[in-house]
Amino acid sequence: MSTIRLVHRLVRPPMSHLSSTRSAARSFSAAFHPQANKDSDRAHSTTPQHRVNQTDKPPNPAVPSTTSTLTKDFPKAGEKNPPPDLLNSADPNYKPVDTYPGKVEHYTGGRQQHGAQKPELEVGEMEGITFKVEPLRRVGEDISTMRARLLYQSRKRGILESDLLLSTFADVYLADMNKEQLQEYDRFLDENDWDIYYWATQDPPAEGGAKSDVSKDTPTETWQRTGAKSGEWAQTVGAFKAAYRPVPSRWADSDILRLLRQHVRDNSANGFHAAKNRKTGGGGLNRMPNIQIFNN
């Protein structure tokens, strides 16, 4: 019997490698065919409805870390009275973390009731810190060295806008300043760059009428018509109108700030011709002037 089987095996043609691969692939694909394994889908019957509910929900509001429940965005917060067993543990003199809640703007768009107003920040003070950065004062500096130093400090600021504004201003007025004006300009340069820029370029709100500026940063109408529809980033330059920054009392009657505001008007399109006649501007603020060498 074994001899007969051996003869049959020798007579039968051998199976090729390609046919064996095809048969293995056919059996593998048939085992995992979706029609052949309908029961393998374990998704819940309410999955599509749940996915729609999750995508239709509004995003969670950005809640700040301080006094968030004092706004009207969360009306249910504090609606019910606390349990009697917790009344003894409550601090009757509790105050929110923000000292001046009337000026706190929340990311959610809510605003607290008007309260105490924040005082003016002095030079070297920053909101949220308990220390004060004192500016470096020079003692025994001669006029020539002070003038050269102020020219350098006018050209090397923290932002490009202040570089262009103060470098062109120093090129026009610095050479004719007396010692008192140089000292006042020295103190003025210790202020924050963005404050200097807005103090010099923004017009105060109109008195007795409609306000010429907004109380907080708002998108411009041009960006709403074009950039918002095209998907342009809101951080793009010119997309927002900056809120008006009032001039502090220490610079309200400053001759330096008056000259700086006049310098901005002289280099604007409206004051171009008058400034050229006075030789106080007219060239614009698009580039830094060449370094001026002072004789005294």
UniProtKB/TrEMBL annotation:
Pfam families: Sdh5. GO terms for biological process: mitochondrial electron transport, succinate to ubiquinone; mitochondrial respiratory chain complex II assembly; tricarboxylic acid cycle. Its main location: mitochondrion. GO terms for cellular component: mitochondrial matrix; mitochondrion. Plays an essential role in the assembly of succinate dehydrogenase (SDH), an enzyme complex (also referred to as respiratory complex II) that is a component of both the tricarboxylic acid (TCA) cycle and the mitochondrial electron transport chain, and which couples the oxidation of succinate to fumarate with the reduction of ubiquinone (coenzyme Q) to ubiquinol. Required for flavinylation (covalent attachment of FAD) of the flavoprotein subunit of the SDH catalytic dimer. The keyword Ribosomal protein does not apply. Interacts with the flavoprotein subunit within the SDH catalytic dimer. Residues 33-118, 272-296 are annotated as: Disordered. This is Succinate dehydrogenase assembly factor 2, mitochondrial. Residues 45-71 have a biased composition (Polar residues). It is found in: Mitochondrion matrix. Keywords: Chaperone, Mitochondrion. Coiled coil: none annotated. Belongs to the SDHAF2 family.
